[in-house]
From TrEMBL:
Source domain of life: Bacteria
Protein name: Nucleoside hydrolase
Keyword terms of this UniProt record: Glycosidase, Hydrolase, Signal
Domain Inosine/uridine-preferring nucleoside hydrolase: 35-269
Signal peptide: 1-19
Organism, scientific name: Mucilaginibacter angelicae
């Protein structure tokens, strides 16, 4: 008999839920992991969708929300206060969700690292170090980055001891040419890596962080049709209306530049939730998605990969369970409205 079948047998023989006991999610589901989410909430709105999904997931204990900067020349926000603006956008969303003040929201640095060995200082860096250094909990810590790597790189440079106390899940980096080809008219460096190349070099080249990477060919799978935005998201209360409005406003702005997005949008940060909240019940892991183990490459000064035969093994996710991810998001929005 397998371990899973034995545990199920125990549950049936010795049920822990009586007939009169509530079976709501808050009674049956408790956090299995801690997370800190770090994202450019003032940029591409995909981060706001991921944040909504994350805070509505009962198996996750959100220990911090970090608003991070964009590339200095980014069209979403060319101000000098990009991280501060990201905090404002995250706070607006939490207010709509009626969750304001339930999670600490902290600004990261408004600028990237000057090189790959000099950390920036910010309250967000302090938050990561403090949470990773806790000894009063057995819940594993995941730092979820949907943009640049400034804060996590700076945290590990500031206190190298935390490198083995967390798992970094990062949306970013170009394709690995032995696994996938880049898309037509691709940008180089890849968008999230280009936010702070020195920070990416610090994480890949110098740290021993446990890393799960979702490169461009992975996160581009998270395609949301506009039809589902209209039918599955927009009608779902104030949160659905707000998220749809943010995305539709962006689509309208893009049309002014004569760009045709077609009828889909890539919610590329949502796999951060798929790989953490939606893991398997037994032998917990993101078992519905596929990854390969690769030696961690070096990141060169141009933002490309250089082979590193002695690099630590990292997970590179190739195929994501997008149906599970979006169906769960739609359901949680409906339950929350």
């Amino acid at each position: 008999m397998t371990k899973s079948k034995f545990l199920l047998l125990l549950l049936f023989v010795f049920p822990c839920v009586s007939k009169g006991q509530s079976t709501t999610a808050n009674k049956l589901i408790s956090p299995r992991i801690r997370v800190i989410i770090d994202n450019d909430f003032g940029g591409d709105p995909d981060g706001l969708f991921a944040l909504t999904h994350l805070v509505l997931s009962p198996s996750i204990e959100v220990r911090g929300i970090i608003g991070s900067h964009l590339n200095a020349n980014d069209g979403f926000d060319k101000s000098k206060t990009q991280a501060d603006n990201a905090v404002k956008e995250a706070t607006k969303l939490l207010t709509v969700l009626k969750l304001k003040d339930q999670f600490p929201v902290t600004a990261g640095s408004n600028t990237g690292m000057v090189n790959d060995t000099t950390p920036v200082k910010s309250k967000a860096v302090d938050l990561i170090i403090k949470e990773a250094s806790r000894t009063d909990t057995n819940l594993p810590l995941y730092v979820l980055c949907g943009a640049g790597l400034t804060e996590i790189a700076s945290a590990v440079l500031t206190d190298p001891k935390i490198a083995d106390k967390l798992t970094l899940v990062w949306i970013g980096g170009p394709e690995y040419i032995d696994l996938a080809l880049p898309p037509p008219n691709y940008s180089s460096p890849e968008y999230n890596l280009n936010i702070d190349i020195p920070a990416a070099r610090a994480v890949f080249n110098h740290s021993q962080l446990k890393l799960w990477q979702i490169p461009r060919d992975g996160y581009r799978q998270a395609i949301l049709p506009y039809s589902e935005l209209q039918l599955k998201i927009k009608p779902q209360g104030e949160a659905g209306k707000y998220l749809a409005g943010v995305l539709e406003s962006l689509m309208a702005r893009i049309q002014q530049y004569h760009l045709n997005l077609g009828e889909t949008y890539i919610l590329g940060d949502s796999p951060l939730v798929l790989l953490t909240a939606l893991r398997s019940s037994f032998e917990a892991d993101p078992s519905s998605s596929e990854y390969v183990l690769k030696p961690c490459p070096f990141i060169n000064a141009q933002g490309g990969y250089d082979y590193n035969a002695h690099g630590r093994n990292i997970r590179v996710y190739r195929r994501l369970d997008i149906n599970l991810m979006f169906n769960d998001f739609f359901a949680k929005l409906e339950l929350n409205k």
